[in-house]
Amino acid sequence: MTIAKKLVEGLGGAQNIEELESCIVRIRAIVSEPALVSEAVIRETSPIGVVSSGRYVQIIVGPSSDDLVDEMNRTIKATAFC
């Protein structure tokens, strides 16, 4: 499983992600249901850090954040058509 797919899984799956964006060195996500987020799964991708507050989750990954968000968005779109 790719890092992007693992991050989507850790955020509770494609259907749980409302917004996703890259911000310099981090991935910012807004999720529908915070209880579905698994920080343990996210940490399997070896991020620099994970910060969550309610529906907001930030995953600090370094300069690869743009590429990861692009791949995560492709994963989400592919899931929508299944």
TrEMBL record:
The keyword Transport belongs to this UniProt entry's keyword annotation: yes
Membrane-spanning residues: none
Tree of life domain: Bacteria
Swiss-Prot/TrEMBL keywords: Kinase, Phosphotransferase system, Sugar transport, Transferase, Transport
GO molecular function, one term: kinase activity
GO cellular component, one term: plasma membrane
Annotated coiled-coil segments of the chain: none
Listed InterPro entries: Glu_permease_IIB, PTrfase_EIIB_Cys, PTS_Glucose_EIICBA, PTS_IIB_1
Short name of one Pfam family: PTS_EIIB
Active site: 23 (phosphocysteine intermediate)
PROSITE patterns from the UniProt entry: PTS_EIIB_TYPE_1
Domain PTS EIIB type-1 span(s) in chain numbering: 1-82
UniProt entry tagged with the keyword Transcription: no
Gene Ontology terms: biological process: N-acetylglucosamine transport; phosphoenolpyruvate-dependent sugar phosphotransferase system
Name by which UniProt lists this protein: PTS system, glucose-like IIB component
